[in-house]
Amino acid sequence: EAGVAQSPRYKIIEKRQSVAFWCNPISGHATLYWYQQILGQGPKLLIQFQNNGVVDDSQLPKDRFSAERLKGVDSTLKIQPAKLEDSAVYLCASSPTGTANEKLFFGSGTQLSVL
Amino acid sequence: EDQVTQSPEALRLQEGESSSLNCSYTVSGLRGLFWYRQDPGKGPEFLFTLYSAGEEKEKERLKATLTKKESFLHITAPKPEDSATYLCAVQAPRNTDKLIFGTGTRLQVFP
Q1: What is the rounded (10 degree) CA torsion for A7, A89, B108, B39?
Q2: Cross-strand bridge partners of residue B59
Q3: What is the 3-state secondary structure (H, E, C) of chain A?
Q4: Are A34 and A91 in contact (CB under 8 A)?
Q5: Could you read off the pLDDT of B54-95 as tens digits, one per residue?
Q6: Contact at 8 Å (CB) between B79 and B61?
Q7: Is A23 within 8 Å of A75 (Cβ atoms)?
Q8: B53/B3 Cα distance (integer angstroms)
Q9: Do B31 and A100 touch (CB under 8 A)?
Q10: Is A100 close to B46, i.e. CB distance below 8 A?
Q11: DSSP states along B37-65
Q12: Scanning A97, A109, B54, B63, which has its CA 20 to 30 A from the CA of A3?
């Protein structure tokens, strides 16, 4: 079974530039998550989609971050403009139905460095 | 505010030297406590879910236990391939059931 695919693997940009990350979840998984993991910290949820609708985006900095999940399959997370503190690994995860206590399947992440 | 605290931050063990990792939590209405393993450059990989105090789950050399205030991940006779960061996370309805992760314990097992 193919896992969660993310690209690019690494990205280096300068502050105030824009960047986009792409995620393709496991086939058939209804729920997709974007997490931010700063070095030395645990992942923090940015946004959760159920099919193509947003379930939780309470921790998404909406003045600079945006995300979409077209057709309820793959998803794009965008940062515009980037700040130094956005340097982190951005992890995408998916789960079959999004019900409580369901395990998440994570991709390998995109490591972003903002200079 | 709901919190998850993991200790120690880092742990170095000799191969075969058993030990335990701790996850303390303060959350109202715990729905589940999760353990994930994260290798360098990879995303977290699910290990266990615990639902209620007294519950235990095992997988190979790992055993997770849960009380009303904390969870332990016991590692028996570890091998170098057990080296990874172990993350604990809690889920509660008050937080819309999103996972709240601790900062992890970085385990290194030397041959």
Answers
A1: -30
A2: B62
A3: CCCCEEECCEEEECCCCCEEEEEECCCCCCEEEEEEECCCCCCEEEEEEECCEEEECCCCCCCCEEEECHHHCCEEEEECCCCHHHCEEEEEEEECCCCCCCCCEECCCEEEEEC
A4: yes
A5: 999 999 999 999 999 999 999 999 999 999 999 999 998 777
A6: yes
A7: yes
A8: 18
A9: yes
A10: no
A11: EE-TTS--EEEEEE-STT-EEEETTEEEE
A12: B63
Q: Which amino acid is at B57?
A: K
Q: Which residues numbered 25-64 in A keep a CB inside 8 Å of some CB on B?
A: 40-45, 48, 55-56, 58
At B59, list the tokens.
């997988």
The residue type found at B43 is G
Structure tokens at A74: 């793959």
Best residue of A4, A45, A60, A111 to probe chain B, by most B CBs closer than 10 Å? A45
Chain B residue with minimum CA distance to A99 = B97
Six token digits for residue B108: 């290194």
Structure tokens at A27: 């086939």
Contact A90, A36 (CB under 8 A): yes
> For A65-89, how does the pLDDT look when each residue is reduced to its tens digit (9 = 90+)?
999 998 889 999 999 999 999 999 9
Residue owning tokens 């999940």? A69
